[in-house]
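Issue: copy button drops trailing tokens. Both records pasted manually instead:
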Amino acid sequence: MNAASLPIISMASLNSSEGLAQLRQAASEVGFFYLVDHGLSARTLQDYLALSHRFFLLSEKEKQTIDMIHSPHFRGYNAVGSEMTSGRLDAREQFDWMNEEIALAPEQLRRPWQKLIGPNLWPAAMPTLKPALLYLQTKLSAVSVTLLQQLCKALGVSPNALDATLGEQPYTHAKLIRYPAQQTAEQGVGAHKDPGYLTFVIQDGQSGLKVERDGQWVDVAPIPGALVVNIGELLEMASNGFLKATNHKVESPTQGVERYSIAFFMGAQLSATVPVLSLPPELKARALGPSTDPNNPLLTDVGNNVLKGRLRSHPHVTREHYCSEPLKQLLAESFTAIPTADICSGCRV
């Protein structure tokens, strides 16, 4: 897929019926598109990629002080080979941050997903990182809420139809990502769909992101200043399958080239339950239900759906923080009916 064949959506066009129709077509037929005129300049996006590059240049000792193994909330640094997708290790180095929150005391936990709530880990060796990334998080959160509301309008429902699931601010998760060069093309990140409402990706000039379309893997070429947007599984569920969450992956770069990107995931509050929107008859007739994967079933309760993904992706963190009582009992109650693989002895999640 070249740049011209992936839909390009202008935020400025979404005040018109024609722009909304283009957005509806891109989100329902492809599930991926470029977003331009979103309010962040190409220079700003490049500055954030440069900031990411500086973070990964920190020494291993400095990065290990904020390793995710220290966070029961799945935040912090992951070395290459620390995260799994589709049951295989990814060849990527990354830094994860989410909403800044206060962790609940163990006796306050009533649901296992509540353990996801907590503070981020920030490197003392790079004090500028925290304010810069929290600012980016705020800006992208605002863009994502506006785009979600425009998608609702494009579906013929109230633009505020999903606002109640967002609360005062959406649940967000973001990553700085470095894909080091490999001898041959390997799994930078394996084929998957994203679990939230919307994902934004800031790409550098190195290609590698691929989208599955009509049974073929096609390239998503970088366009300076554009955000790559993909529809997540929550929106596929909310639209009863009318909107399309699409498989995608990243192949590792070769020949001494590295790839840098920033991924931003926006979803509903962890306490929310995703509603099914009442689409107009002409769209409802085309909504055939969300796609299903028996090995990774979708859950309408957002917190458990998010936690399920974290537990599978980061088994070392799972073993460290989720295999003690009474958490094992909470996990068993939440996931007992799901046919999923063992993460560690005594836990089925």
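Record 2 (pasted manually too):
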Amino acid sequence: MKAAILHQPGTPLTIEDVTLGDPGPFEIRLRTVASGLCHSDLSIIDGHMPWRFPALMGHEAAGVVEAVGASVTRIKVGDHVVTSPSAYCGACEDCLGGHMSLCETPGNRRAKGAPPKIALGSATVFPFFELGGFAEAMLIHERNCVAIRKDMPLDRAALLGCAVTTGFGAVARSAKVQLGETVAVIGCGGVGLATINAAAVAGASRIIAIDRVAAKLDAAIQMGATDIVDASTTDAVEAVRELTRGGVHHAIEAIGLKATIEQAFAMLRRGGTATILGIPPQGVKLELAAMDFFGEKKIQGSLMGSNQFPVDIPRYVDLYLQGRMKLDELISRRISLTDINTAFDEMRGATVIARSVIEFPA
């Protein structure tokens, strides 16, 4: 099968023929229908996060199950599935306590000494998050996916695996935004736009979108933002505090920069919460005003929206098919696998508003 292989950070991905193994116990093989390009993939490609090479990137995908291995109970041949990086064991303290996204023992890797899932000649290929969505087919653990309704378009369903799960989960599960509260979202890429949509669905009274790119702010209005702040010309903290007469209940940061994380905390009202979705570079330290904590302001992280994806993703499918969730607007471009390097260049240059989605031929 064809796959986009990364041999070393800082080099282009190359389209090569790789060999996919047969499904082992608890594994499924699926034909990839669509796969979204995410900044997490770009972080590995550009060398900002460690991984093993050669690598097969891609983790935000959807497809049709072609084969299942022994002991698979949740998935069957012919199912339409959405993949998720948040594999879970279902038995640890985090899983049993309702925090599946924090599971550290998902058991979704093959045992040491077992044949590789993916091979390039004699070399083992290492799929990102044990997924590897930039390929015509995927071999994954059943705990890395969930079956969905077959009337859901799979190109849009792919976005549920990361961007939407992160944005909607940040609002519903991490921040727990309540009806009538105010929300500021810093960064209006794919995750930020999904967060804005989620805040609108939750009934936030004011949703302030903050970015430096005019086209992204325009997109934010379409997703439900009530106000926009152009951070290239305006002090975002002052603007938010003025719009809300003192600050927001929730500031959600979807970029991962020291400055914007600190801004999220600074634009809170008393008792407000800053929720951080963006992944900052390793070693970054934050500087926060200590006295703000005496106003009961809080800051927290959110790992993929604190998701419980086997429950959440089917619900999101229902929301989309009911017309309450916006997914069509999150697809900026539909591309082929051979366009992948150009699409990542566009991501680096911030010329893609939300998501580029690879569509694979049937």
